[in-house]
């Protein structure tokens, strides 16, 4: 399958009755800080409290009956697993979610509540993913990638479809980046509508694989550091990197150690619960990492809100 804007349009129709069209709200305070117009795309208010339901449903809904009968499996740091578990529950499918032993307890429990079998193994996402792929071969399960399948990427691209429908004047989109599936889909749609739109990825100083790969123009493997933005940590693929190199304008880093400041700022000023991985775009504004000439109209993708409440401390 060739991934293009047409596939994202098809995905938007496929998802219409399944996902929420999340709000795009104006942030007065971030606009003052940035000297631009800043809007927040609130995927933390999505059905599973993250954008991952978009890509997960877009791929699972297109599986053959044989693929569904075999049972599905995925590796996840949390939000993708919740999405796969949720969709499997509503479609009556058996699902296994492989997560690291250090994954968020809240996300682990949510997957189990939705009826999925959760397998905890490894010290990080990469180790969990490697074990997951062994199970795929051994048990002939159907693997649902979180970032490197074109159907997943097309589903994530529907966020850009909504943003530019809600405000056609947006000229800059800030996107959290982990494996690269989200920003790949968003960039393809945005550039198809307007090649002048700036699509900028955001990673952290401790979860920077795509940043380094973007600069090197090849996949760079880095050691996995413990980080608060666990949803952004781990490897990328040649699939997503090739799309990012073609369509994304830049990738910037924010300070991982100061990321909870952005989470708390968002709770206090926007009254939104956002997990650290979902707050990197806001952190980019607050840490003055975004260098844009002129008065931009910026949409920040708030990718998720599944946070352990124990992390929120004053």
Structure commentary:
The longest helix is centred in the middle third of the chain and has 15 residues, at 125-139. The chain is built from 14 helices and 10 strands. It folds into 2 domains: 5-51 and 154-311, 3-Layer(aba) Sandwich (Rossmann fold), CATH 3.40.50; 53-143, Rossmann fold, CATH 3.40.50. It is globular. It is an alpha/beta fold and 314 residues long.
Q: Which helices and strands occur, and which strands form pairs?
A:
Layout: H1 5-15, E1 24-27, H2 28-34, E2 37-42, H3 52-60, H4 65-69, E3 72-75, H5 79-91, E4 95-99, H6 105-113, E5 117-120, H7 125-139, E6 142-143, H8 150-156, H9 158-166, E7 172-176, H10 181-193, E8 198-204, H11 209-216, H12 238-247, E9 250-254, H13 259-270, H14 280-286, E10 297-302
Parallel strand pairs: 2-10, 3-4, 3-6, 4-5, 7-8, 7-10, 8-9
Antiparallel strand pairs: 1-2
Helix pairs in contact: 1-8, 3-5, 3-8, 5-6, 8-10, 9-10, 10-12, 13-14
């Amino acid at each position: 399958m060739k991934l293009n804007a047409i596939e994202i349009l098809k995905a938007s129709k496929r998802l219409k009755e399944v996902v929420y069209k999340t709000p795009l709200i104006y942030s007065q305070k971030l606009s003052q800080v940035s000297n631009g117009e800043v809007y927040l795309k609130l995927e933390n208010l999505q059905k599973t409290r993250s954008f991952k339901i978009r890509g997960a449903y877009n791929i699972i809904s297109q599986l053959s009956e044989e693929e569904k009968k075999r049972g599905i499996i995925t590796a996840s740091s949390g939000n993708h697993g919740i999405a796969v578990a949720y969709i499997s529950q509503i479609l009556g499918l058996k699902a296994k979610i492989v997560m690291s032993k250090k994954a968020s307890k809240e996300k682990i429990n949510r997957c189990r509540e939705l009826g999925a079998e959760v397998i905890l193994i490894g010290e990080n996402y990469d180790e969990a993913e490697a074990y997951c792929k062994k199970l795929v071969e051994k048990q002939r399960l159907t693997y649902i990638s979180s970032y490197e399948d074109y159907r997943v990427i097309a589903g994530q691209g529907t966020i850009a479809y909504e943003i530019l429908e809600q405000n056609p004047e947006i000229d800059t989109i800030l996107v959290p980046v982990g494996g690269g599936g989200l920003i790949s889909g968003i960039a393809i749609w945005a550039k198809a509508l307007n090649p002048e739109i700036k699509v900028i990825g955001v990673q952290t100083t401790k979860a920077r694989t795509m940043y380094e790969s973007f600069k090197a123009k090849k996949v760079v493997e880095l050691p996995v550091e413990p980080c608060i933005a666990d949803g952004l940590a781990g490897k990328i693929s040649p699939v997503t990197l090739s799309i990012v190199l073609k369509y994304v304008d830049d990738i910037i880093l924010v300070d991982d150690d100061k990321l909870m400041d952005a989470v708390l700022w968002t709770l206090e000023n926007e009254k939104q619960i956002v997990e650290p991985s979902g707050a990197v775009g806001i952190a980019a504004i607050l840490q003055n990492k975004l260098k844009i000439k002129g008065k931009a109209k910026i949409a920040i993708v708030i990718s998720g809100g599944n946070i352990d409440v124990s992390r929120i401390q004053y």
